[in-house]
Amino acid sequence: MVNCSRLSVFVALFLLTISWSAQSAAPKKEFYEIRIYHLKNPDQGSRVEKYLKDAYLPAMHRAGIKNIGVFKPVASDTSAGKLIYVLTPLKSFDQLLVLPKTLEKDAAYLSAGKDYIDAAYNNPPYARFESIVLESFRDMPVHKLPNLSAPKSERVYELRSYEGHTEKIHRNKVKMFNDGGEVPLFDRLGFNAVFYGSVISGSHMPNLMYMTTFSDKASRDAHWKSFFEDDVWLKLKANPEYQNNVSKNTIFFLYPTDYSDI
């Protein structure tokens, strides 16, 4: 007969092993940096793109950071030719902090990116850049690649920013995506979301941002029409718990460069 105390220890260890396995199998939360380059002229745009394509993306890949997105505003946008967006998914916040030192040790990066890295004070490759850091949502803890077959030049990637009146109201909007069911609704309707994130450092806080993707503008419009007519959304937006939780909604229409991973 098995000793009861030994059996209890065995059962406890077994349950603990299952718990550890479940925790290790669960997707971990990601962080994202969105870097936005502001350009004065086409020459700066060409130099930044050469740096991203030949130096930054290859260096990130060598560092084990995959799926870097590089985007430009669509032609009809007044910011076309003036901005370049770079989305970098990160496994942890610490990874963002050590990236500069990682790049400094990469000889291939330093060589390929020399024009950008060693630019003279009177000939910079950009006017300025801004950096937005985000923490992924609970219900989509890791990013996804869009399931699209259309040429990248025809695609429409929609980046949205929802600003909140206060921190508490902002958290209510994040809750609307998670507990309220906006994330699974977007997924069910085929919005091909790349990420959802709450901004932890940026110029328009408190706010959240997310990116959805479409084959073209017509597909984008059709998807949003189905969203606004969906019974789940109609019920959700009428829920008193989630009223007046966005002070400003800004939409950026982008398309991926031919060398973008996303």
What does this molecule look like?
With 262 residues, the protein is α+β, with helices and mostly antiparallel strands. It has a single domain (31-256), classed as Alpha-Beta Plaits (2-Layer Sandwich), CATH 3.30.70.100. The chain has 9 helices and 8 strands. The chain has helices spanning 4-25, 42-62, 93-104, 107-112, 114-117, 167-178, 182-188, 217-229, 231-238, and strands spanning 31-38, 69-73, 83-90, 128-136, 156-163, 195-201, 207-214, 248-256. An 8-stranded antiparallel barrel has the order 1-3-2-8-5-7-6-4, surrounded by 4 helices.
Q: Strand order within the widest sheet? A: 1-3-2-8-5-7-6-4
Question: Architecture, CATH level 2?
Answer: 2-Layer Sandwich
- Examine the coordinates and then state which fold CATH places here, giving the name of the CATH topology: Alpha-Beta Plaits
Outline, from the CA principal axes? globular
Strand tally: 8
Helix and strand string, N-terminal first?
HEHEEHHHEEHHEEHHE
Low-confidence stretches: 9-24
- Measured between the Cα atoms of the first and last residue, the distance is 60 Å
- Over all CA atoms, what is the radius of gyration? 22 Å
Q: Work out the count of structural domains.
A: 1
Total helix count? 9
Largest sheet: 8 strands, antiparallel, barrel
Category by helix and strand content: alpha+beta
The percent of residues in helical segments reads 40-55%
Instruction: Name the CATH class.
Output: Alpha Beta
Mean model confidence by pLDDT: 92
- The percent range for strand residues is 15-25%
